[in-house]
């Protein structure tokens, strides 16, 4: 139940031609406290309820629990969420033994594209695709739970 992942900015749209899967995600937060977040997500026609704990100091690891729920349950819970809904398309790209999940955001976070790779250990090696940019692991402003409070459109670019 520990999630270990690295997060990166993306340099180009080249990942789209390498993606083997893509789907639309709509998500909100019932609780966006940094010590524990509770997320509701609609991924195509499936719902999910996810609880995440506080990240380690380096931002690589944190507790994560997720349960699939029905679409009507997810839709009802989204109505109870804190202000700010995240809308994005997620693309999945296989790179050797890993899958990179690339999120292209819309709405108030339009223009932001972030890639994540889940690892089995914090020191696990992985192959970086050429379209991967600066690492932002541990940079809180890129957490979805903070993007609802300070969206990308408000950042000074």
UniProtKB/TrEMBL annotation:
It comes from Winogradskyella pacifica. SUPFAM superfamilies: CYTH-like phosphatases. Residues 1-149 form the CYTH domain. It holds the Pfam family CYTH. This is CYTH domain-containing protein. InterPro entries: CYTH-like_dom_sf, CYTH_domain, NeuTTM/CthTTM-like. Gene3D superfamilies: Hypothetical Protein Pfu-838710-001 (2.40.320.10). The lineage of its organism: Bacteria, Pseudomonadati, Bacteroidota, Flavobacteriia, Flavobacteriales. PROSITE patterns: CYTH (PS51707). Signal peptide: none annotated.
